[in-house]
Give the backbone structure.
Amino acid sequence: MINNITFGQYIPGNSFFHKCDPRSKLIGVFWYVVLIFLCKSFFSLALVSAFTLISVIFSGVNLKTVLKSLKPVLIILIFTAIVNLFYTSGGEIIFAIRGFKITEKGVNTAVFTVLRIINLVVVSSLLTYTTTPTMLTDGIERLLHPLTYLHINVGSLAMMMTLALRFIPTLIEEIQRIINAQKSRGADFENGGIVSRAKALVPIFVPLIISSFRRAYELAFAMTARCYTGGNERTRMKQMKIKVRDIFVFVYCVVLTSGIIVLNRLFEAVL
């Protein structure tokens, strides 16, 4: 399950979203996330899902690659669905056993919540797929620039946020290497109860933490050796400019917002 997880990676391309300004993509993704939680019916959520699929097409990223971004949250999706199925009361009872009931409202809530999370993860993944870490850092830094008046080091903050996303795939690969090394020494991660499985994870997390600290020190030394300094004094090779395609991103979000408002008023809420 850890293999081939693509979340946090940049995929080179020449698509519409690859050419967009990182600031418009950041604002668009934040706007999109808010709209996902404003959906109150399956009709409005279906509209969001359709726009998400269109966004995947505009990104030029393979659909299989996008689906791989759901692997890290697969357990969360299953757990959320089970909780909503058995602990949501109301509506007609579909199935009942030993005090546990599955109602019509529980099924609707489970499906609705899972679809929300899927749209959220896919849209967030498209941001990292189509934006280089450097451009993402510059975009965050420019958007957070007003915070400099509060004496906040926006450059360092943007760099930390970008590095956190950038090193997700690296940490996943490191976990896989440690697991393979432990399995070659006879470690068993699949058999036994919950307690034994939890104890088996200790030989994984200890070297992972040590490796993470080592990478952090190496990165800090490398940035220091290259005289990296964040802030306004740092120049940029590529200057960001808002173009027609960036305006289209905002129009895209406005159209989606209008559609959600109309559908929410036309149809009753499912929750």
